[in-house]
Amino acid sequence: MSGAFNFYYMLNNGTDVKAMLAYTATDTVGRTIGGTAGKFAGAAGGLLLFGPAGAIVVGVLGAIGGAAAARRLVVKGRQLFVAEEDARVRAAARRVAEGAADAMPGKIQAWVLKSELMRDSLAGSHANQAKVQFAMSHRMSEHIDYWSCKRTELQKLATNLNREPKDLFERLFILIRRTGIHAHHIQDPLMDLGTNMREYEAECKRFRTTHL
């Protein structure tokens, strides 16, 4: 049944014979080992709780559950087939995060200068000027603090890439959007990341690493 489904998947999803044979073999071996372990564990529990009849029924259920659990582990094991692409995505994501973090001081400094110019231009004894100066200065300080925090988050992301590649990709782009960094500051690493992400997704589809 596993082989037939994988053959169908190959015909309809553009994978190849090598990948089909790889995940057919891992599916079968994983379900066999996991199913056998689940069968005996279930039988032991059924015998303890319900006697001989319970051992038979729960043993069968254990075999099914064990096979399903093993199948999930096998899918994770097939991640080894895309390890190279995975590593390239992570390396590219690190370069993007580092580039974005490196671009932040310039943006922060520009806002510091704007804040200083604003204070100088509104300096004076008039009450309205003082109120406007205080409000604008406070708002600018909030922006500067916010972007400083986002830069710290980018730096942390660049040194901690433990997320799944797709989660990492999404988190990185959310951070970049929130920092307001213009794409030209990180254009090359962004293009590199996009290329590596497409290759990773193609290999995941080829080896069916995301399907249970």
Give a structural overview.
With 212 residues, the chain is mainly alpha-helical. The chain folds into two domains: 2-81, no CATH class; 83-207. Helix content is 85%, strand content 0%. The chain has six helices and no strands. Helix 4 (127-159) runs antiparallel to helix 5 (165-179). The model is unreliable at 1-11 and 16-71 (pLDDT under 50).
Averaged pLDDT: 69
Q: What order do the SSEs take from the amino end to the carboxyl end, as H and E? A: HHHHHH
The low-pLDDT segments are: 1-11, 16-71
Oligomer: single chain
How much strand? under 5%
* Number of DSSP helical runs: 6
Largest sheet: none
Distance between the termini: 15 Å
Structural class: mainly alpha
How many structural domains? Answer: 2
Q: Could you give the count of β-strands? A: 0
CA-based shape: rod-shaped
The level of helicity is over 70%
Q: Output the radius of gyration.
A: 28 Å
Features:
212 residues, mainly alpha, 2 domains, 6 helices, disordered N terminus, membrane, transmembrane, transmembrane helix
Task: Please sum up the structure shown.
The chain crosses the membrane at residues 47-70. By secondary structure, the chain is mainly α. The protein has 6 helices and no strands.
Q: What's the arrangement of secondary structure elements?
A:
Elements (H helix, E strand, L loop, with lengths): L1 H12 L3 H61 L5 H39 L5 H33 L5 H15 L7 H21 L5
Helix pairs in contact: 1-2, 3-4, 3-5, 3-6, 4-5
